[in-house]
Amino acid sequence: MNVCNFKCEISCSNKCCTGKTAITLDELYKYKDIFIFGFNILKTLDRSCVLDERKQLINKDFVCIENELYSHMAYFTAINNESFCEALENNLCKLHIDKPKMCICMPFDPMHKEYDQYELFNLKQKRMKNYCNGFLSFNEKSKDTLFYNNKFIDEKIKTAFYNYRKNLKLINNEISKNNEIKEFILDKCEENLFDYYIETYINVKLYLLIFKILKFSEDEIKNFINSQYNIVLQKLNNLNKDDSNYILLKNILNELLLLKNNYF
Ligand code: SF4
Ligand code: SF4
C-alpha cells in the first residue's frame, strides 16, 4: 500500500513559493491583475527521457508538436521576481483561499498521471527535505493522508489535479491545430537549441487564441490587455536593466502594445 501523508504548515511559504508559478488557461482572467503571464515550452527527445531527476513523461494528450526529434508541450506561467512568487506577502500566500490549481495540488504534480504520484511524492520529499516540514514520516493512513493506494483521497486536490490536466490538454490541442503558433514555438526552440525548458512570452497570435478559446467578450479582452499592460509597465519601471526578466518583460510589453493598437 502506498500512502502519502502531508500537512502544509503554510507559514513557511517563502521556502517553497519560488520560481515560476504554473497558471492554467481558465485562470488567466482571474489573475490578470496579479501576475504577468509568460509562456513555457517543454521539449523532450522522446516521451521517456530523464529530466529533473525523474521520468519526465509528456502524456500524448499534452503534446502540441511532435517532430522527428522532439515532443513539445506548452503551458502558461506567472513570471515572478527572481526569488519569490508575486502572490507572496509576509511569507504567506495572499491568494490562499483561491490559489492556482498547481498550488492546490502541492506536493503532487498534475503534469504526471495519478498513478505516478506516489513515486513523485517521495522524490519531492527528498528534494525538499532541508526546508519543508510538511511531509509526515509515518506511513499509515491518517487524517493527513492525501493519497492512498494509487489514488487521491483528498477531493480538493483531486478536482484541481484533473482540472489542471483538462486545461493543459485543451491549450496543447488548440496549439496543435494552429500553424502560426507552432511556428512561433519552433522558432523559440531553435533560438534555445540546447534547452529543454524554454521560457518566453505570449505572442499576439497566442493571445488571440486564448481570447477565442475562453470566449472573452470585447470588454473582457480590453480589461485583460489593460491589466497585463499596466502591471508589465509598472514592473519594468521598477526594474534594473540587468534583471534576468527585463528582456522578457520588454517583449511582453511589445506584444500587448500591438494588441492595444488592434483593439482600442
Ligand atoms: S510546509 Fe512545505 S509546502 Fe508547506 S509552506 Fe512550508 S515549505 Fe511550503
Ligand atoms: S500563488 Fe500562492 S501558493 Fe502559489 S506559488 Fe504563489 S504564493 Fe505560493
Short description:
The chain has 264 residues and is an alpha+beta fold. It contains eight helices and twelve strands.
Strand content: 15-25%
Cα radius of gyration in angstroms: 19 Å
Subunit arrangement of the protein: single chain
What is the tally of helical segments? 8
Largest sheet features: 5 strands, antiparallel
Global geometry: globular
Contiguous low-pLDDT stretches (5 residues minimum) are 49-54
Overall residue-averaged pLDDT value: 91
Structure description:
This protein is α+β, with helices and mostly antiparallel strands and 264 residues long. The chain has one domain. The protein is built from 8 helices and 12 strands. The strands form 4 sheets. Strands 2, 3, 6, 7 and 12 form a 5-stranded antiparallel β-sheet that branches. A 3-stranded antiparallel β-sheet has the order 1-10-11. Strands 4-5 form a two-stranded antiparallel sheet. It is globular. It starts with a strand and ends with a helix. Residues 49-54 have low confidence and may be disordered. The site of one iron/sulfur cluster has 11 residues, from loops.
